[in-house]
Amino acid sequence: MTGARRIRKAYGVRGAPYLFLLPAAVLFALFFALPIGYAMWLSLHKVQVKGLGLGAGARDEVWAGLENYTDAVSDSELLAGALRVLGYGAIVVPVMLGLALLFALMLDTERVRFAPVTRLAIFLPYAIPGVVAAMLWGFLYLPDVSPFYFVLVRLGLPQPDLLDGGPLFVALSNIAVWGGTGFNMIVIYTSLRAIPAEVYEAAKLDGATPLQTALRIKIPMVVPSLVLTFFFSIIATLQVFSEPTTLKPLTNSVSTTWSPLMKVYQDAFGKGDIHSAAATAVIIALVTLVLSFGFLRAANSRTRQEAAR
């Protein structure tokens, strides 16, 4: 009897971690794994219309195989949207991470004043929802209501239309940079604060200037944080949706398929073709996964090479 109790007690102790993980596993399955599986199932089917498509049984869901995927890959609108997102990301990612690193280094200096207030001011735009931020900047871009254009008119300066043509990329990028710099700055600044004070003291004894300390000590030691923020920025860039969607009613330069996710939305809710939308969404997810995995693998291999040196 004592041996049986010991076995039950040992089994209960070993099973306790799985019991604690059960709620997270259930939530993961319901809100992550199950939707992904359902999207993949939809992407492999299509609706077959019989006759005029009227009456019961006139529209059936049949197996399509990879037909939706081949149609999505050969879609010129999806390719054009992907190219636009690449141009958008070429502006957003370097500018946003460069500003975040600059602000973090400035806040980490000894002479900075009102550091808590400054950190909050830089981080505050990140707390504003993306749709609200896009709407706010959208009205600031409109010549009829923007105070910036009023000042330009008074000064006799040219008034560029930021919602038309090439400047549209700058307008959209500005919204993303304004909203995302604060978060990345906090991540980098936290890594800077984790550097031991003895490192800075040794640099001072060696006669290093603040600029040399930043370039030769601080930046190399926060490379993991830079890699992390770059990784998150790439994912956010590939999933851009709220900014162009919010600005679309304000300009004709933003089409319903300006970005790949906007095309998914248009196919699903504009055309009512959820099967093609699911296939496009799966392709976007796979591209994001491949790019993220490749970047992390390259970053890890470089870190190992530097550690071996």
UniProtKB/TrEMBL annotation:
> Sorted alphabetically, which keywords does the UniProt record give?
Cell membrane, Membrane, Transmembrane, Transmembrane helix, Transport
Q: Where does the record place the ABC transmembrane type-1 domain? A: 82-295
Please give the GO cellular component terms listed in this UniProt entry: plasma membrane
What Pfam families does this protein map onto? BPD_transp_1 (PF00528)
The UniProt entry's GO biological process terms, in alphabetical order, are:
transmembrane transport
Q: Does the keyword Transferase apply?
A: no
Segments spanning the bilayer are 20-41, 85-108, 120-142, 168-189, 221-241, 274-296
Top-level lineage group: Bacteria
Gene3D superfamilies recorded for this chain? MetI-like
| InterPro entries in the record | MetI-like, MetI-like_sf, UgpAE/MalFG_permease
User: Key word Membrane present in the record?
Assistant: yes
* Location within or outside the cell: Cell membrane
Membrane topology, from the record: Multi-pass membrane protein
UniProt family annotation: Belongs to the binding-protein-dependent transport system permease family.
Identify this protein by name. Sugar ABC transporter permease
Origin organism is Streptomyces apricus
